[in-house]
Amino acid sequence: MRLIYLDHNATTPVRPEVLEAMLPYLREHYGNASSLHTFGRTARKAVEEARGRLAHLIHAEPDDLVFTGCGSEADSMALKGVAFANRRHGSHLVTTNVEHQAVLDTCRYLAERFGFEVTYLPVDAAGLLRLDDLRQALRPDTILVSIMHANNEVGVIQPLDACADVVRDFSQQIGRRVYLHSDCVQSLGKLPIDVRRLDVDLLTFSGHKLYAPKGVGALYVREATVMDALINGGHQELNRRGGTENVAGIVALGAACALAEAEMGAEARRLAALRDRLEAGILGAIPEARVNGDAAPRLPNTLNLSIAGVDGESLLINLDLEGIAVSTGSACSSGSVEPSHVLRAMGVDKEYIRGSVRLSLGHGTSAADVDATLEVMTRVVERMRQLSPQWEDARALR
After folding, report:
1. Average pLDDT, the chain
2. What residues act catalytically?
3. pTM above 0.85?
4. 225 and 150 share a domain?
5. Rounded CA gap, 163 and 132, in Å?
6. How many helices, marked H, and strands, marked E, lie in the chain?
7. DSSP letters spanning 68-119
8. CA torsion through residues 209, 214, 220, 221, sign
9. What is the Cβ-side half-sphere exposure of residue 220, based on CA atoms within 13 angstroms?
10. What are the phi and psi torsion angles at 166 (to 5°)?
11. What is the pLDDT, as a whole number, of residue 390?
12. Would you give the end-to-end CA distance of the chain in angstroms?
């Protein structure tokens, strides 16, 4: 059976070039990067070279980057670190209803356990934040705003530069910097990121969304940002994150960043063309199929579909039996019986939320994969609808 992987927003395969870069640091160069002997200095040199590669990709200074264990840790470090260190200025946080659970759950934790107040901003039907809502949410006691760059479920790209302008204007009004954080886990390597132009204080990244292995992430922290460390117990990462560095993982992330910088433009165009081909084919072949987020700028690789008359999880299983891997949304929400919080926030009808799936393309996706997926999905949906008494009810939604 031919296997087709269309779940790159959940995780990506480690590219051969990345694996080759990291293998020496699992074998002969196994030193602790904090050790002073030759083994340690070799590991330290590799860590700093990787830090420089990530910094170059996002136009940052290397010392502004903190390596973490994953994107969720980086999100938690950003929110908790800023909230705890700046409480003397206030206890109000602002975020959106469509953030990754790593942000939403951290905000909920800060509110329930430590009394912080959180404002959750809505999005419109396209999945976009309204700048006026952001302006109205800011208060004299606001200390942090967290707005993701690109959504992991629907791929919608938020106007982060315009959001930064709003937050900076308000900071000038109150005479104190309100920090702006953005979860860039899905956008790193897919979209250009320039921290000098964005004027954002904290950005979150994850290696395994970028063809590096699981277990490594990073947080960009603008110079002079006041924040507490999330993990104590060591002086690593300029005292910002204690713990022995995952040298091999960090080297892999650096190698993946170098590949992304070299290939980003051409790869984005290639994936967008394949995504559009798949999207047009599905809409033309499957009645009552809708695309979520297509009225807004989207990641070039992401297609979120709602198909009336089928259950998304059942569709996922049926496609998997045919060798095609897709998702019903965020991998971090797998097993949840709750409908997608992103699609609910966008006002998608309940029936269409139930029939939603996400297809996310990647480096190994070919035109043949797209055409095969279209053929299989059309056939599977038709078969599922024939067996579903809900299909006739769904057609009444028209």
Report:
1. 94
2. 332
3. yes
4. yes
5. 10
6. 14, 12
7. ESSHHHHHHHHHHHHHHHTGGG--EEEEETTS-HHHHHHHHHHHHHH--EEE
8. positive
9. 31
10. -65, -45
11. 65
12. 37
What is the Rg, in whole angstroms, of the alpha carbon atoms belonging to the chain? 22
pLDDT tens sequence across 224-262: 999 999 889 888 888 899 899 999 999 999 999 999 999
Place of tokens 């296997």: 3
* Pick from 377, 373, 392: nearest CA to 309: 392
- Domain shared by 228 and 102, yes or no: yes
Token pair in block for residue 105: 């759950």
The pair of structure tokens assigned to 52 is: 């420089």
Neighbours of 261 (CB within 10 A): 16
* CATH number reported for the structural domain that contains residue 36 in this entry: 3.40.640.10
CA distance 136 to 128: 16
Q: Which of 208, 225, 259 is the last residue of a domain?
A: 259
In terms of domains, do 272 and 177 share one?
Answer: no
Helices within the chain (DSSP H only):
16-22, 38-58, 71-85, 101-114, 131-137, 160-174, 195-198, 236-239, 247-285, 312-321, 341-345, 350-354, 367-386, 390-395
Where is the domain boundary, 232, 259, 286? 259
